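Q: What would this chain look like folded?
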Amino acid sequence: MFLLLPYKLDHPLHRRPWVTWAIALLCLLIYYLQSSTAVRIEQSAAQFCAGDHGMTLDRFLVRLEKENEFIESTASACQQYLVYLHSEKQPDSIIQNLVSEHGEELKEAGINPQNLAVHLSMTYRDFAEQAPLDLTRFLSYRAGSFNPFSSFLSAFAHADWWHVIGNLVFFLAFAGAVEVFIAHTGKFLLSLFAIEVGLDFSWSIAMLSAPAELTLGLSGIVSGMIGFLAYAIPRGQIRCLFGILFYFWHGTLAVWVLALWYVGWDVFYLFTTGASSVNYLAHVMGALFGYGIAGLFYRQRKGELQENIDKELVRYQQERVHRVGRF
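A: My prediction, written as structure tokens:
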């Protein structure tokens, strides 16, 4: 096992990244609400499926042997299928596809597929009226529709706790440094939004020849912060936690080295990996847009700070032995 975890930029710019911290707290709060809502939806589904509608749906799913796609052994087919439908933005389309797949079987059993699809849709609507809104579905964004505000909003939602924590570790390390570098709250937020607009544009182009996919999470913006910092302070030193098996130590790596490492792997996976839950396109394009935004709008700022940064780098070289230790 190899671990490389960046956690803080060593810099001479004495400013606290309040906005970065606030965004991190917002992401944690939103995911807490997402997970709480998911529990309430499951409870609503269990209650709904205990009635007559639920038993009918359960028998139908078991007959088609579709329950294994949606359920665990601890829940009914009805309950898990309703939760699944409630998490999708086009449940009627999913129902129609399910019925269409088994149209011949249904006709042989004397069941009209179209009537069944209508019945299932009405059953789901009855459930949806009493179930809480699925916050994850509401916040997720269909890549390719080009709606920058909706795309930006989806960045604050995540799929699970590992997803949000992993993104925030990198966001705090790199976005905090970018915020300190820019030293202006409005410009920092505008830079984040500009990166998301660029991502949305990229998705729209990419989805012209592929089905639009739902996306959520902060990783595209995180990559944008890595790219931004690679231009702004390429030789800046990031404190990192390293680990091999059970041996851990901490030290520093230059920003450009980390950018090359992370973005390089994203480029590799983008061209070698098929369908994946990780949006490598967002990672790569985010890094490119972050680098470009820094180069277009913050060249002067980089020049103003370069002397202080160079002095700090000299100090790091002199104190490197004292800064590196073991936990």
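Residues 2-34+144-326 form a domain with the Rhomboid-like fold fold (CATH 1.20.1540.10).
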